[in-house]
Amino acid sequence: SSDLLQVYTHILALGKRKKDALVAGKVNELEAITKEEEQLILQAGKLEKAREGITQDILARSGVQTERLTLTEIRGLAGSDTAEQLSHLGDELRTALQEIKVTNELNTKLIQRAMAYVDYNINILTQHSTGPVYAAKGQAGKGVQSRMLVDQKA
């Protein structure tokens, strides 16, 4: 359905905006994009259920004995004009889904790099002035107190 294509196209656009927000380090924008993506994913799920219902109706009317109809099989059951529209729509859906996959993979790599950078900086900060953890007779060494990043009295 063209509604499903519109949703996936919007998800793709958000994925590209997410990439830009990740690169620029815009956390607030990233959060807003993620919330919008969640809503679109829910909407896509509803549209998929509706599509499955329509497919089941086609199966029942056509007498085709199969669990699921492929787009090619549906085109065979439809008239020539409808078959051409379905073919075009199927191509656009495949293209959009492939682009979403590539964009999501890139965003995942960007997030992993950002996390590695944060972990690296935390390690640098926590190792700044650490001494031995244990003193000579098994007692805590002086370095333990300097390892804390957050004041525990707060």
Structure explained in plain terms:
The protein is mainly α. The protein contains 5 helices and no strands. The protein has helices at 2-24, 27-62, 71-77, 80-126, 143-146. Helix 1 packs antiparallel against helix 2 (27-62) and helix 3 packs antiparallel against helix 4. The radius of gyration is 27 Å and the shape is elongated. It starts with a helix and ends in an 8-residue tail after the last helix. The model has no long low-confidence stretch (mean pLDDT 82).
Tell me the total number of β-strands. Answer: 0
> Which consecutive residue ranges, at least 5 long each, have pLDDT under 50?
none
Mean pLDDT: 82
The percentage helix is over 70%
Report Rg. Answer: 27 Å
Helices, by number, come to 5
Give the N-to-C terminal Cα separation. 56 Å
> What overall geometry do the principal axes of the alpha carbons give?
elongated
Main pleated-sheet profile: none
Classify the beta-strand content into a percent band: under 5%
SSE order: HHHHH
Summing up helix and strand content along with how strands pair, one would put the structural category as mainly alpha
Classify the oligomer: single chain
